[in-house]
Amino acid sequence: MQAVAGAARAARAVVRRRAGAALAAVPAAVALLATGAVGPAPAAAPAGDGLRAVARDAYFLPPANAEPDDGLTYDTALVPAGAGITVVEVARDGGTRLRLSLTGLLPGRTYGAHVHTRPCGAAPDDAGPHYQDVRDPVQPSVDPAYANAENEVWLDFTTDHRGKAHTTTRQDWRFRPGGARSVVVHEHATTTHPGEAGMAGARLACLSVPFE
Ligand SMILES: [Cu+2]
After folding, report:
1. What is the pLDDT of residue 208?
2. Residues facing residue 207 across a β-bridge
3. CATH number of 25's domain
4. Distance from Cα 204 to the centre of ligand 1, integer Å
5. How high does pLDDT run on average in the chain?
């Protein structure tokens, strides 16, 4: 427990140093996203044309050790305390791009990840269901007509030999205000079969993100 508490203190110190840079400016977020394999984007877009950018940078800690800005890990065997996460959203012209980066996870392992509707909480289920552009009238939604990578935001990733991963998505719609509030990391890749579409096993970790 002492090691976890020490890691928590160290991680939070780094988070505080990095938070200022990550949240500094819209152009910085746009530039960061533009470095990913999501197609061309200007290094600095003019504000005021509906452009919205959100960036969050945090470390995962168990709920008992975490402060409000920390990510939460519910399974420290698969998402160790001190693993890092960066989420960048750039929304513009009716579309939304997301970039997810992770460090400190298990090497060579595939995880599922999605945007969920509610902020993270002490319990994994607190993050609510997946965000859906067109909401499935039947909940929980396991119908591939609604639970798919175009109607939801799926950010599944596979780590490299050092436990790092990057993934990007691009949707041709924007989030409803206040409707998308977290990224949840899951146990395995997201399935697409009828009756279990969108499922990805246990919720391992969560970061609250105020998507716009
Ligand atoms: Cu999910």
Report:
1. 98
2. 183
3. 2.60.40.200
4. 10
5. 86
> For tokens 């999605």, what's the residue?
114
Q: Which residue in the block uniquely carries the two structure tokens 């988070």?
A: 15
pLDDT of residue 21: 40
Residue 130 alpha carbon to ligand 1 centre in Å: 6
Which residues of the chain form beta strands (DSSP E)?
Answer: 52-61, 71-73, 84-92, 95-103, 110-116, 157-158, 165-171, 182-186, 203-208
Tell me how far the alpha carbon of residue 44 lies from the centroid of ligand 1, in angstroms. Answer: 32
State which residues form the domain around 27.
2-208
State the total domains in the chain. 1
What is the reported pTM? Answer: 0.82
Q: Give pLDDT tens digits for 14-55.
A: 444 444 344 444 555 555 554 443 333 444 444 556 899 999
